[in-house]
Specification:
With about 325 residues, the chain is an alpha/beta fold. It has two domains: about 220 residues, Spore Coat Polysaccharide Biosynthesis Protein SpsA, Chain A, CATH 3.90.550.10; about 70 residues. The chain has ten helices and eight strands. Helix 1 links the parallel strand 1 and strand 2. The longest helix has about 35 residues. The chain starts with 5 loop residues before the first strand and ends in a 16-residue tail after the last strand.
Length: about 325
């Protein structure tokens, strides 16, 4: 006998007062229709407040009193999107969990199609953007280039234009939250856990209100690409430096043989010019390789600290205490 599932929707947000009322209204309409059709039994909206400085917190508490469907976690400081998403996931009680941005670029109405894929037996439902309204050609080009690089070098499949708007079954979620990386790259981790996965396509809308918090060429985005996305799922930088070192070393051997042949032929060769050029070139390659190794060493350094990914300052709307055990996350 078919039992309609429960659904949790997780948002990480920062200063989204202008968007939250419209977001909550559209979500409630979508879930009202799904429950009326018998495809959903209940839902909860888990908002993780990444230390907002506006009145988003008060607004959500007010909206939560209307229907009791809103849960709120307030971070003690700004920890970033992925740690906040994981904080919400660890406290989600639904049979399935959707995580998405709170800026309404990803339309809540798409959740209906995602839930249909879940009913078909899929544990992970990815969403891929067919088009992206309100974004410049330069941003689209850089984004596509970044996805292409990740897809080429990654050890797990990374879909182009698949963002952080996904549905996970309960068992997929439980495996995901066991991964305790300090710089989690969610798109890679969700693919890495496996299970039955599928993809649906949608049109990404322009931001409903406010300004984006993630400029495409900002230091924050670039740093995240190299220190989280690239390193977490690829050892190609290490291989690249090794292959460069081997190639240059072999080339220098052949060059040395050429110098000897030229000397035997009696050709004049300056003693100091070429060795200095080779030495300078190899020194540059060596520094470059050390820099790549430094990225991995920095990642190991962060992991060795064993700091928690987040600290909850307060909460609202939970029937149970959302505070995790200090030794690790706990589930209700």
């Amino acid at each position: 006998m078919f039992r309609p599932p429960t659904l949790s929707v997780v948002f990480s947000f920062y200063n989204e007062t202008d968007v939250i009322p419209e977001l909550v209204d559209r979500l409630r309409k979508v879930f009202g229709l799904l429950m009326g059709e018998g495809r959903l039994s209940s839902y909860e909206l888990i908002f993780v407040n990444d230390a907002s400085t506006d009145n988003s917190r008060e607004l959500l508490e007010q909206l939560g009193r209307e229907k009791g469907d809103i849960r709120l976690l307030n971070m003690s400081r700004n920890f970033g999107v992925s740690p906040c998403v994981l904080a919400g996931m660890e406290r989600a009680t639904g049979d399935a969990v959707v995580y998405m941005d709170a800026d309404l670029q990803d339309p809540p109405e798409t959740i209906s199609a995602m839930l249909a894929a879940y009913h078909e037996g899929h544990d992970v439902v990815h969403t891929v953007r067919r088009s992206r309204t309100g974004e410049t050609k330069i941003k689209l080009l850089i984004t596509r280039l970044g996805y292409s690089i990740l897809r080429y070098v990654s050890t797990v499949p990374i879909q182009i234009n698949a963002g952080d708007f996904k549905l996970l079954s309960r068992r997929a979620l439980l495996h995901l939250i066991q991964l305790k990386e300090k710089r989690p790259f969610m798109r890679g981790l969700v693919s890495w856990i496996g299970f039955k996965q599928t993809t649906i396509y949608y049109h990404r809308e322009a931001r409903f209100a406010g300004r984006t918090k993630f400029l495409i060429i900002s230091p924050k985005v670039i740093t995240n690409f190299f220190s989280s996305a690239l390193i977490a799922f690829s050892d190609l930088p290490l291989q690249f430096s090794s292959w460069c070192g081997a190639l240059i070393s072999v080339s220098s051997v052949f060059y040395s043989f050429w110098l000897i042949v030229e000397l035997l032929r009696g050709q004049p060769i300056p003693v100091w010019s070429w060795p200095i050029a080779i030495f300078a070139f190899l020194s540059g390659v060596q520094l470059f390789s050390i820099g790549l190794l430094g990225l991995y060493i920095a990642s190991i350094h962060v992991e060795s600290k064993r700091r928690p990914n987040y600290i909850v300052e307060s909460s609202y709307g939970f029937d149970y205490s959302p505070e995790p055990d200090p030794s690790g996350p706990s589930m209700p």
